[in-house]
Recover the amino acids of this structure.
């Protein structure tokens, strides 16, 4: 059933010193199948796409403050759009769509969660032309780095991934042409 809304648990407090988290950031492709605790997922989403001011400003910068890149969660149950204000996940597609996030890297099917960073074209209209596209990519990169630091600080394995078929992934996510999957980050406990 679509439009199911999942209220996430409150995020855990990420309290590892920044230098230590920077020292531990790594891309890892060896995952356990153990599901992610919701409080960890909630903290991860807050770190990369959450609000750190009541007016909607986020933990990450964005060009012209468009905030055009949103985080989606893909797990064995479906595809979910993160709402940072409500700390909820709203379902956009059902079933296990993790295979659609890769063009052939098998470890992705083992990891419990892949986060997809999706450009919403309606929000990125001020970002025109090649320069605008670069800004969308940089905005996404900021989110990826924040997510990987949070993973390092919480003892989670993660790997950013660009190797996927964007059209196939978009369709599996239940999204139309106004949405563009830009990057993915596969996350789980280390094997
Ligand atoms: C834009 C970008 C795309 C990437 N795409 C993939 C990918 O599709 N699959 C993969 O396994 N790793 C991918 N990576 C991870 C890199 O291979 C990894 O960051 C690099 O080997 C350096 O390792 P480190 O992150 O542990 O320092 C990507 C990284 C970036 C920044």
């Amino acid at each position: 059933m679509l439009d199911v809304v999942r209220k996430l648990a409150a995020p855990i407090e990420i309290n590892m010193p920044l230098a230590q988290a920077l020292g531990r950031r790594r891309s890892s492709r060896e995952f356990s199948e153990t599901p992610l605790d919701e409080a960890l997922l909630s903290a991860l989403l807050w770190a990369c796409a959450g609000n750190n001011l009541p007016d909607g400003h986020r933990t990450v910068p964005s060009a012209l403050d468009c905030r055009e890149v949103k985080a989606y969660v893909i797990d064995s149950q479906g595809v979910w759009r993160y709402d940072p204000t409500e700390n909820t996940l709203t379902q956009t597609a059902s079933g296990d769509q993790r295979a659609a996030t890769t063009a052939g890297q098998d470890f992705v099917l083992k990891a419990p969660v892949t986060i997809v960073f999706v450009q919403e074209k309606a929000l990125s209209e001020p970002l025109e032309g090649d320069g605008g596209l670069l800004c969308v990519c940089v905005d996404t990169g900021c989110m990826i780095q924040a997510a990987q630091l949070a993973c390092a600080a919480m003892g989670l394995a993660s790997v950013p991934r660009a190797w996927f078929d964007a059209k196939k992934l978009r369709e599996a996510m239940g999204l139309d042409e106004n949405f563009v999957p830009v990057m993915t980050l596969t996350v789980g406990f280390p094997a």
Q: What stands out?
A: The two ends are 32 Å apart (CA to CA). The CA atoms of residues 66 and 123 lie 6 Å apart. The first strand starts at residue 5 and ends at 7.
